[in-house]
Amino acid sequence: MNKSYVYFMTNKNNTVIYIGVTANLLKRVYQHKTKAYKGFTAKYNCDKLVYFEDFSDINQAITREKQLKAGNRKNKEDLIINTNPEWNDLSDGWLFYFD
Fold first, then answer.
1. Are the beta carbons of 61 and 21 closer than 8 angstroms?
2. Under a CB-based contact definition with an 8 Å cutoff, are residues 4 and 60 in contact?
3. How far is it, in rounded angstroms, from Cα 29 to Cα 36?
4. Where is the GIY-YIG domain (predicted)?
């Protein structure tokens, strides 16, 4: 069974929240941290993973991503604060090895 993830990235001052979906969270966070793609997260320096949920089906993850994106900022902040009140980078200590 392959997991899928919905995740939140933010910048060092926690002023921007980016919501994404992926089948490989480790690799995707690495891509954000290294600014591998010159999109929203690179422009706003969103390189800190502050929240994620895992799913057994990519379609469930996509549905949840859409639901979260449609919500207001306070709801997103509440999700983060309930699991990560200090807004720590949850990927600290992860090792990134990719070809």
1. yes
2. yes
3. 10
4. 2-79
Its pTM stands at: 0.92
Residue 60: strand, helix, or coil: helix
Q: Which domains does the chain have, with CATH numbers?
A: 4-83 (3.40.1440.10)
Q: How many CA atoms lie within 13 A of 64 on its CB side?
A: 21
- How many CB atoms are closer than 10 A to CB 25? 21
Q: Using CA atoms, how far apart are residues 92 and 99, in angstroms rounded to an integer?
A: 21
CB atoms near residue 82 (< 10 Å):
9
